[in-house]
Design goal:
The protein is 54% helix and 6% strand. The radius of gyration is 25 Å and the shape is globular. Strand 3 and strand 4 form a beta hairpin. The chain is α+β, with helices and mostly antiparallel strands. It binds glutathione. The site of glutathione has 12 residues, from loops.
C-alpha cells in the first residue's frame, strides 16, 4: 500500500504545472525555505490531489492529516518569507545626475522593485563626482549600489547582480532562448564598444585636433561604424536583443541619449535609432526613472 501511495505521489509531483514549481522558488532572499520541506523534499510531494485522497484508506488517513498539516505550515512560511524579504529588502542606488547611473534607476523601475535613491550633483566646473560620492569608492564614479551590506560599482555588474537577485528571469534571456547570444552581445557591447567610443570621441574632440588629423579620423570612423551597426540591428529588430526589451537596452540607451549632453552626436542619419529611442521614451519605467533621477533633464530622445 505504502509503495502504491509513493508511486502515486511521485506521479503527482511530475504532473505539477510548471508555474507552481517556479512559484516555490520566487523569494528574493536567495535562501528559500519554502522551496522544500527542509529535508530536501520539494513541497509538491505533499500536495493533495483528488486521486490521492481516494487512494488513501484506513491507517494511511493519519499520514494524510500529517501531510496536510505540513503543507499548511509550508504555505504559511512561504507567505511570511516572501512578505518579510520584500519588506526588509533595502537597495540603495547612488545616482550621479546626468550619468550612467540612470541605467540602474531605470532597471529598478522596470522591475518595479523598491529602492532608496541617493542623489549627487556633478561639480559645476570639472563635471566630476562631488566629494561625498568620491568618498564611497576608490574610483568615485557612479553608479554605485548598496545591497545586503555589499557595495558594488560598474553598471554591468550592478545590472547582473540586480537581475540575478531580484529579476526572477525578467529582462534577460537564458541559455535556452534563441536570442541568448544576441542578448549577451548587445548587453556587453554597451560598455565594451559604444560607451568607450563615445568617451574617446568626446576627449579627442576637446583636444581641438584638425578634422583630418589621423587620430580624429580614426576615432570618428570607429564611432560611425558602431552607430551604423546599431542602426542595422534596429532596422531588423525592435530592441537590441531581438523582439523583446531587455537589460541590453537598459545598458545601451544612456550612450545614445544623456551622453550627448557631453558629446553632441547628430542621430539624424540613423532613423532606426531615433525610432528606437521613441519606443524607449514611451516606456513608463523609463519615464519614471528619468523623472525621479534627473527631473531637470528632458530625456534626449531626438
Ligand atoms: N564603466 C563604469 C563607468 C562609470 C563612470 O565613469 N561614471 C561616470 C558617470 S557617466 C562618473 O561617475 N563620472 C564622474 C567621475 O568620475 O568623477 C560604469 O559603467 O559604471
Amino acid at each position: 500500500m505504502a509503495g502504491r501511495l509513493n508511486r502515486r505521489v511521485r506521479t503527482l509531483h511530475r504532473s505539477l504545472p510548471e508555474a507552481e514549481q517556479a512559484r516555490s522558488k520566487r523569494c528574493a532572499c536567495g535562501f528559500s525555505p519554502h522551496a522544500g520541506d527542509g529535508a530536501g523534499r520539494p513541497h509538491a510531494r505533499i500536495r493533495r490531489g483528488n486521486g490521492t485522497k481516494r487512494a488513501l484508506r484506513g491507517g494511511v488517513q493519519f499520514r494524510l492529516v500529517r501531510l496536510n498539516a505540513l503543507a499548511f505550515v509550508i504555505r504559511v512560511n512561504r507567505v511570511i518569507c516572501r512578505t518579510s524579504c520584500e519588506e526588509n529588502f533595502v537597495l540603495t542606488i547612488h545616482h550621479l545626475g546626468h550619468s550612467q547611473s540612470e541605467r540602474i534607476v531605470w532597471l529598478c523601475e522596470e522591475l518595479e522593485i523598491p529602492y532608496k535613491l541617493e542623489k549627487y550633483t556633478r561639480d559645476p566646473v570639472t563635471r566630476l563626482s562631488p566629494p561625498e560620492l568620491k568618498a564611497l569608492h576608490p574610483l568615485g564614479a557612479a553608479p554605485l549600489i548598496e545591497a545586503d551590506a555589499i557595495l558594488l560599482a560598474e553598471s554591468a555588474a550592478i545590472v547582473e547582480f540586480i537581475l540575478a537577485r531580484y529579476g526572477h528571469g525578467r529582462l534577460q534571456h537564458g541559455p535556452d532562448h534563441p536570442d541568448f547570444a544576441s542578448y549577451l552581445y548587445w548587453f556587453h557591447f554597451a560598455n565594451g564598444n559604444l560607451q568607450p567610443v563615445m568617451g574617446r570621441s568626446m576627449f579627442i574632440g576637446r583636444c581641438g585636433l584638425a578634422p583630418d588629423h589621423p587620430i580624429q579620423v580614426s576615432v570618428q570612423g570607429r564611432l560611425d561604424k558602431v552607430l551604423a551597426l546599431i542602426e542595422a540591428r534596429l532596422a531588423q529588430n525592435d530592441y537590441l536583443a531581438g523582439s523583446a526589451f531587455t537589460a541590453a537596452d537598459i545598458m545601451s540607451v544612456f550612450s545614445l541619449t544623456t551622453m550627448r549632453l557631453f558629446h553632441p552626436v547628430d542621430l539624424k542619419p540613423y532613423p532606426n535609432i531615433l525610432a528606437y529611442l521613441q519606443r524607449i521614451g514611451a516606456r513608463a519605467g523609463y519615464q519614471r526613472a528619468m523623472a525621479k533621477g534627473d527631473p531637470d533633464l528632458t530625456p534626449m530622445l531626438t
